[in-house]
User: Fold these one by one.
Assistant:
Number 1:
Amino acid sequence: MGKGKTVKHLIDKEWCKGCGICIHFCPKNVLEFNKQGKAKAARPEDCIACKLCELRCPDLAIQIIEEPGSRK
């Protein structure tokens, strides 16, 4: 991710059907299944905000928001 930016993953658990497409296409392995079989951002600090998960989700259940701010 760009210097001075943070990434927020908004995942609508009601819309997510747990198909795993977002997990499969993530180049940095940021996403994984939670205990309910839905997508979650397990390693958001590794996200490069490519938005492949957002673009590939057939149910529009994930949104990537880039926010200015310091990365820790």
Number 2:
Amino acid sequence: MKVEEDKYCFVCGDQNEIGLHADITVGQDNTAYAKLKIPKHFQGWHDIVHGGIISTLLDEVSVYACRNISHKGVTAEINVRFRKPVPTETEIELRSKVIDIKRKIVMVEAELLVNGVVHASADTKVFNLE
């Protein structure tokens, strides 16, 4: 499978008109970080971010944590835990870190926080295509 960079990623693509436009920073220590507000039009229930959007954000920040290992990684598996509702129009923080590497599989832990409190987390297996 050939994976090419483009500007239309739903989470981070700056040319995707309906996307989230997240600016994710990659750390030298196999981590990734972002802060953003999720607009109301991504809600599930009244003023609460849809769970699919939360899962998507955790997926994306997990793949970004692998960028120093490989620029061509795709999610093989993700296990998301929803702990608290995430309000729309509120700044959230995404954090992720690589915790293990086994051959072509990179294990990542990710969290979504609101005011320093974990509202969702994920364990992700990222497949390295390189």
